[in-house]
Amino acid sequence: MKIGVPIEVKNNESRVSITPAGVFELTKRKHHVYVQTQAGLASGFEDLDYIEAGAEILSSLDAVYEKAEMIVKVKEPIEKEYALVREGQIIFTYFHFASSQALTLAMIASKAVCIAYETVEDEDGSLPLLTPMSEVAGRMATQQGAKYLEKPIRGKGILLGGVPGVPPGKVLVLGAGVVGIQAAKMAAGLGAHVTIFDINMKRLRYVNDIMPSHVVTAFSNEYNIRKHIKTADLIIGAVLIPGAKAPKLITRDMLKDMTPGTVMVDVAVDQGGCFETTRPTTHEDPTYIIDDVVHYCVTNMPGAVPYTSTLALTNVTFPYVLDIAQKGWKEACNSDPSLQKGLSLDHGKVICKEILKEMVV
Length: 361
Description:
Layout: E1 2-5, H1 20-27, E2 32-36, H2 47-53, E3 56-58, H3 61-67, E4 70-72, H4 79-82, E5 90-93, H5 101-110, E6 113-116, H6 131-148, E7 170-174, H7 178-190, E8 193-198, H8 201-210, E9 215-219, H9 222-228, E10 234-237, E11 263-266, E12 287-290, E13 293-296, H10 306-327, H11 329-335, H12 337-340, E14 343-346, E15 349-350, H13 353-358
Parallel strand pairs: 1-2, 1-4, 2-3, 4-5, 5-6, 7-8, 7-10, 8-9, 10-11, 11-13
Antiparallel strand pairs: 6-14, 12-13, 14-15
Helix pairs in contact: 1-2, 6-7, 10-11
């Protein structure tokens, strides 16, 4: 199979979808890999590394799309890429279709085969291709939230972990999934007081078992959320409904109950966000302020740490890439129920039921 690895063109996205090690494994099995020049540079991989692994380096985005039967990416195609996608071409990447009707309609019109990382699902309900980036994003949510609590950035001026004689900051985490637990773990490590919300009592019991005593759990409902936001310093949105839009757990009117300088980090922004006031931002311009509340809603948080993120992502995506290359997408999906759940669009036909629920297509 002919496999293309383009440069990620989304704002400040520095990850790459296949490492030289992946290229080596593909080319030794007689597959052809086309890598756009400097695609891996920000993640620490030179063109020469790819050449030595057996890839052919191409000079432009257009050339990669033109030659490849399968495009392997990190983030969803953006508008400048829509016209490059061909009928029957396999696009394997994070899509987050539920949050973008324009993307959905463009991919339907292209009649491509779209397989989404974020909806590949194992038998136990886990999301193997989303988990490593959720781990990175969860840890970064606390890291970024702590930074934006600083006064020069119009935060409260609070050191999240406090110091002797001064109480630590209060962190509210909405969701006890992978993102939420990683965010809570980082906040707890800094010494903050953490409250983590969820509607799944099994998850809350698990949190109680693994976390230190200054991490407490609470059942998630509007009454409890309204109560806790009044004293929270950092609020992290970590809610996920696979393939669907996130529920709006914090509404616009709730902002008036928060103290000025409160920071909200919405990790669910890729799925529409779990705050009503969420709008997508970039690493270049990451925050905005509404009612004196700082919002951080970067859509590709792991892209800021591309070396770590690229290796973590490709560790889990590459076996699927290889399987598709070896068998073709139909046989690969038919033989692997996990991959089958990632199939979102097939030659213009919407396969993923969550897209049908959320989008007018």
